[in-house]
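Worked example 4.2. Below are the chains of a multi-component assembly; read each line carefully before continuing.
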Amino acid sequence: MRRIYAIARKEFIHIVRDPRTMIAVLIMPLLQLFLFSYAVSFDVKDLPTALLDQDHTATSRQYVDALKQSNYFVVNRNLTSTNEIDGVFDKNQSSVVVVIGPGFGDSVAAGHAGAVQILVDGSEPNSAQLGQAYANGLSQIWGAKTAISRAEASGANPAQAGGLSARTRIWYNPEAKSASYLVPGLIVLLLAVMAVQQTANTLVSEKEQGTYEQLVVSPIRRSELMIGKVMPWAIMSALNVITISAIGLLVFQIPFRGSVALFAVSSFLFVLCVLGLGLVISARSSSTEVANQLAMMISFLPAFMLSGFVFPLANIPPVLQGISYLFPARYMTVIARTVFLKGGGWDVLWPQVAALAVYAVVIITLSSLLYRERS
Amino acid sequence: MLPIIFIMPILQLIMFGYVIGTDVRDIRTAVVNHDGTPEAQLVVDSFVNSGYFKQVAAPTSDAAMQKLIDGNKAQVAIVIPKGFADSVHAGRTTQVGIVVDGSDSKTASVASGYAGQVVASLSKKLYPALASVSAGSVDAQVRVLFNPTLRSVNSMVPALLAFILMMSTQTTMSQAIVKERERGTLEQLFVTPIGRAEYLIGKLVPYVIIAFIQITLVFTIGTFWFNVPFNGSLLVMGAGLALFALTALGLGLIVSLLSKTRYQAQQATTFLMVPSMMLSGFVFPLESMPKLLYPISYLIPLRYILVIVRSNFMKGSGFIALWPQFAAMAIFAIVVFGFGLSRFRKQLND
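Applying the procedure described above to all two chains together yields the following structure tokens:
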């Protein structure tokens, strides 16, 4: 016990003495969380739109107003001929081009369909998909409203015609803010990246500086060395989790509907898993460069791509889905998101927590074994 | 180290190619059918036949439905109220309840959009009187150009070319230079007849070559395996990427100047790299960035090369169309590389 404490204390002094590490460990995650939570989103609004109105009637202007008022489209260019359309897309001046044909107003007044062409730039698929959906939806709505007012003007009672309407309720995130979806996963990502990098580096630098042999000669056992090395980082990561979550709650008003105890336990286990991964990496790395690259491959990329942080896991190929089970970030993201947004408890989340516990035990044992082999 | 150089880009390509997908398909749907009539079944069938929704459960109560959504077993629930068929036959406006799990906001907005479309067309089928009232007032033809299938891999592969170039040159180069400084072999080198310029070129060239190999690898796999169509010109791409490489090398030089240990170099590189990924339009579209932060994206070189690479790849945009981006890249390249080079030589001369 005393030996573990000695190692932990030494590690802590190393950390505190290097101001850059302190900044990296405490301030950077906060900065990144703040910046990215605010910045990253898929909520597309104000798509720059070029307008070619060949009709110039009050009706065509009403249609355009309907598009503008939706806040999804912002008209930033007015074109005068179809020849200009190619150039607009080529030069990336607008993402959408709306072409209202001549005779639009007359057609609508006569009760026929007025022709509108909406061209969407597919090279940014996210915005394109949403732009397409908005354009379709808005046109339908405007068309229905115009038809109803025309029907009323001619004496028919449209309410008698009935109709099916969808009553849509969006749970847990009524404004569909992607921040609420992204921030819990972001917390997981930042933790994973930071923790793995730290541990990967400490052990390897020991080897390189030659202090490792000194440790081996001392009466300390491998497992005690591992635990001692990991402790300060575990504590600091725990502090980070608390501060990051607090910021998420206060600044971004992301709801926290679940059990604090569950989140605390899961975070602790997750940090152990990630630190254990870092130890495994450094056990197998001959130099810090290799450790760094491996840390990138094993911590950042899976945490970003295969954890469900941004990209839903349900639709990816089964092989990759299987691989995602090998990384703790996947389980923690589910826990984080459920605890923050849905308020699920132990009954819903016990499989993930159990997975993290098992993972932590396995990985730390693995790292101790790997160290023993090398010497 | 060597295998990692080739595995990393392939790994990234696999991840970005297969994982990032905007296709929201087979949305797991729970159906709560309180009515049980043929008309209610028609509603269910319309949702399933649309191809967007996949029925995974038929809970009998709202509580059971909630549990399914909480447990992530279903993303959407369709609730058909009791008396649905009677209401339709009586010609009254009838509601179909749609519950969407908002915690995945992207799927949520797309799912509600699709649900709305299904209900709208179903409405015309079930209410013939309505069809005649709302017949044809706007016929909006919405067409998606340049990437009609909206495959995001088509947009990611060109972006990866730039990203891998940045990672390769920036990280590996700064690490290598700082390693020499750490080990003290730098001074030893200067006792030899080698000149400063020769040293620099010798240091930079291998990483440029490696990056070039990696880019070619990604390009080939991207176009052949992932079937990403290439509509541009290699000249334009090459020119843009070369300018970007200069910028990345310059940044690597600057990082190596400021770092005494490789660990610090690594942290500085990560510090530069993560915002580049998030704020340049690489993963998250620039259009969805908050207005306040939008100007920051202008400071990130990756932003410009992404426009060049994606436009050229997918739309065939040339030098003339892309001149603003090329101008920006040239300025970045000259300023950053020039600054890094001059500082580096100054340090070497000391």
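Take a moment to check your reading of the output against the notes. Residues 235 and 322 of chain A are 31 Å apart (CA to CA). Chain A touches chain B through 113 residues (CB under 8 Å).
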